[in-house]
Amino acid sequence: MQEPNKLTRSHPQWEALYRAAVLEGNAGLLAERIAVAMLSLGARLEEIQYSAEHSMERHRIESAIHMLDRLRATELGRTG
């Protein structure tokens, strides 16, 4: 069982990292921002995978992962 503080501690972190990736205007930094955000999203998803009370957050994380995948495919495909 996870400690309550551990469940909430990384919540804002994934959101901030996701936002930073989506808003990154420098194509040279975009791949790194996406990679860091994806690691954070994956870690948070793993933390809450068995918690029924976090189903909304799980949905938001899955949507964020999908969006970053699309961003990586479209934006990085142009520069690579």
Provide the fold topology:
Blueprint: H1 4-9, H2 11-23, H3 27-48, H4 55-79
Instruction: Report the structural category.
Output: mainly alpha
- Strand percent estimate: under 5%
Tally the helices.
4
Whole-number mean pLDDT: 87
- The H/E string reads HHHH
The biggest beta sheet reads:
none
> How far apart are the termini?
43 Å
The low-confidence runs, each spanning 5 or more residues with pLDDT under 50, are 1-5
Overall domain count: 1
Protein described:
The protein has 80 residues and is an all-alpha fold. The protein has one domain (4-79). It is 82% helix and 0% strand. The chain is built from 4 helices and no strands. The chain has helices at 4-9, 11-23, 27-48, 55-79. α2 (11-23) runs parallel beside α4 and α3 runs antiparallel to α4 (55-79). The model is unreliable at 1-5 (pLDDT under 50).
Question: What's the quick description here?
Answer:
By secondary structure, this protein is mainly alpha-helical.
